[in-house]
Design brief:
By secondary structure, the chain is of the alpha+beta class. Helix content is about 30%, strand content about 50%. The protein has a 4-stranded antiparallel beta sheet, with helices on one face. A hairpin with a 2-residue loop joins strand 2 and strand 3.
Length: about 100
Amino acid sequence: MKTYDLFTIIKPNLDNDEADKIVAHLEEIVKNLGGNVNDCDKMGRKKLAYEIAGFTDGFMVNQLISLEEDKVVELKRQIKLNESVIRMMFTKKECA
């Protein structure tokens, strides 16, 4: 398994409980694909540097996940289907 950073920005018009449900759903997607969420940093609601999808702020979450390389495309596809996620950045973590 490879290690990846998954950074997501969730719509700010949700309350904290709804945002937590979205994060739990993302973790469930990773687990259903045979991966693990090693760390989850919920940074809270932050102001964005520029407007994204009409929003000037959003709930930011950074997750460190382990996942097989052949499952990455499916993970990205499922995240894009979630309308509550307005932006995501998925990067491969280089091991030292």
